């Protein structure tokens, strides 16, 4: 049995493995794998939302570690930018998790949906963006912008989470001038730090389901390795297509959440759709 859940079924374990593998692949290419993992984890009998979030982070950290190493070996991203950015992101992630403990993420979801729509439109109508690296800043400004991106998106990951990798990729492409492939490589290093920051908050609270997390982590590692190799092989155009697809799904998912949390879904069901 896994982490004391005696009534967990073999089918659920298999679903966790499949979701973890697919999420690792998506995360390695553009981010957003949590959209698959979290709903599956919430299917485990007796699991709480906090346990699901913590266990999701544990699984993800295995995948992001694997994909970060794979990208580093094949793309050689500039660590002088990635590592300081990751350090700031880790601090931001811890701060976001602390705020999340007292402030519901639903407060921010409408803003996130609007931001994702803007990101989707920006990327769709600029087909040449991210094809090549043409840095927009130099010297100290370059590192300040990188640190700001890391801090803001790290805070978001600790606070809400979905789409963190996608936000990192588009920020590195649009605000800093990296190509999609190099942006994905750096994003994995930063995303590893944000996952670690969230885990630092969750671990003392005893929210982590170690057995489930290890199973999820193994699947994430396999998916992350394959995803990183696929992205390196296929290049910038492939990453851009996957990015647009994942952002579209994120918009739909968070949009439905906002709809339901504001009571609009229940009102529609009661008054219109019957």
Describe this protein's structure:
This protein has 274 residues and is mostly helical. The protein has one domain (10-265). It is 76% helix and 0% strand. The chain contains 11 helices and no strands. It has helices at residues 10-29, 34-41, 49-75, 79-100, 109-124, 139-159, 164-174, 180-202, 210-234, 236-261, 264-271. The longest helix has 27 residues, at 49-75. Mean pLDDT is 85; it is low at 265-274. It holds the Pfam family TauE. It is found in: Cell membrane. It is a multi-pass membrane protein.
Structure at a glance:
By secondary structure, this protein is an all-alpha fold.
Using brief descriptors, characterize the structure shown.
TSUP; 274 residues; transmembrane; single chain; 11 helices; disordered C terminus; 76% helix; mainly alpha
Proportion of residues in β-strands: under 5%
Number of helical runs? 11
> Could you state the order of secondary-structure elements as H and E?
HHHHHHHHHHH
Task: Compute the separation of the termini in Å.
Answer: 43 Å
**β-strand number:** 0
Structural class: mainly alpha
What is the count of distinct domains?
1
Q: What percent of the residues sit in helical stretches (DSSP H or I)? A: over 70%
Taking all Cα atoms into account, the compactness measure Rg is: 18 Å
Give the integer mean of the pLDDT values.
85
Summarize the main sheet: none
The outline comes out as globular
**Low-pLDDT windows of residues:** 265-274
């Amino acid at each position: 049995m896994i982490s004391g859940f005696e009534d967990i079924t073999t089918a659920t374990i298999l679903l966790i493995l499949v979701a973890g593998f697919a999420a690792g692949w998506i995360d390695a290419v553009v981010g957003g794998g949590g959209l698959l993992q979290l709903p599956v984890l919430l299917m485990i009998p007796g699991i709480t939302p906090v346990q699901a979030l913590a266990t999701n982070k544990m699984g993800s950290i295995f995948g992001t570690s694997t994909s970060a190493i794979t990208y580093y070996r094949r793309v050689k991203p500039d660590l002088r930018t990635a590592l300081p950015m990751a350090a700031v992101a880790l601090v931001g992630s811890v701060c976001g998790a602390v705020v999340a403990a007292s402030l519901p993420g639903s407060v921010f979801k409408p803003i996130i949906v609007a931001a994702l729509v803007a990101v989707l439109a920006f990327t769709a109508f600029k087909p040449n963006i991210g094809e090549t690296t043409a840095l927009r800043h130099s010297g100290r400004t370059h590192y300040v912008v990188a640190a700001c991106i890391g801090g803001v998106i790290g805070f978001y990951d600790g606070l809400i989470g979905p789409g963190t990798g996608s936000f990192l990729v588009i920020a590195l492409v649009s605000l800093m001038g990296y190509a999609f492939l190099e942006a994905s490589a750096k994003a994995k290093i930063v995303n590893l730090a944000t996952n670690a920051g969230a885990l630092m908050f969750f671990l003392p609270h005893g929210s982590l389901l170690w057995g489930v997390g290890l199973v999820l982590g193994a699947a994430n590692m396999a998916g992350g390795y394959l995803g990183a190799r696929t992205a390196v092989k296929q290049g910038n155009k492939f990453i851009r297509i996957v990015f647009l697809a994942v952002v579209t799904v994120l918009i739909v998912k968070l949009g439905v959440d906002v709809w339901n949390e504001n009571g609009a879904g229940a009102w529609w069901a009661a008054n219109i759709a019957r």
